[in-house]
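Table S2 (continued). Query chain:
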Amino acid sequence: MEIRQLEALLGIADHGTFSSAAEALGTVQSNISNRIARLEAELGTELVNRASGTVTESGDIVVLRARRILSELGAIASDVSELNADIRGQVSLGMIGTAGRWIVPLLLEALRTTYPHIALRIIEGSNSTLEPQVINGQLDLAVLAWPVLAPELTESELFNEDLVLIVDRQHPLARTGGSVSFHTLANYELLLPLTGTPIRREIDEASRAQGVELRPLIELDGLRTIASLTFDGHGPSILPATTLSQHLREKFVAVHIDNIAKRRAVLVGRRFGFPAAPVRATQALLFDVVRNPVNVPDGVYLPSSPSLQ
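Corresponding output:
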């Protein structure tokens, strides 16, 4: 079994076809086909369905292991570079959208100053899309909403933030005196996160504790899309406080909701394995920039001493 064979299989899994894998790896399609054929012969099973070009069930198992193997190989050079105080390498970081609005600019600026040779990739999404990518090694770390369900991941509290009603200043709900109850919200249709997502569970637990069932105008698994709909005039929404940027406050207001818990954001990584030097450096830097009180936007609260478990 050769590294090139594993790279070929990952190329097909990530890019969908033999030709796309060849282009990504800088070779020709015949080389990819030969590497896959030799790997299949050694393992005694089909790894890629030639008719559809998709990875088989056996191939999925090999892909999962191959990601870990190649990740560990890539970490060797990065860890050696750490001895020379010149940490370099690539880090893939997942980020829930609302957190990225204020964290990513701070992190990029800190990386330029402290670790200029770390190349950062940011992948935005929701818990449901980002958790599997951390587990299978496509992402090194991710900032997610608590709770995190996968037992393969470890988590550390990063910050808490208010869940608020985002509403146009001309809407009746904007004239409630600075706060609003769930009983009042029940009289209006709202743009809400998808049922089952972490933030929607927080909203539903709080509203049902008040004996209220909210009325969704639409449900979406994407907070930034919900925010865009609100800002385009389609109705009020319940979202994290950081959703309302400063330049939008002239037209929209964040109204406090009575008796609702704060949303918790956590940093997650894989429970097993030792992160490479660039990953450890980025993790530490992320905590540094988030915990600096100067950087904290309105509605965000810091835990006393976060650290990865």
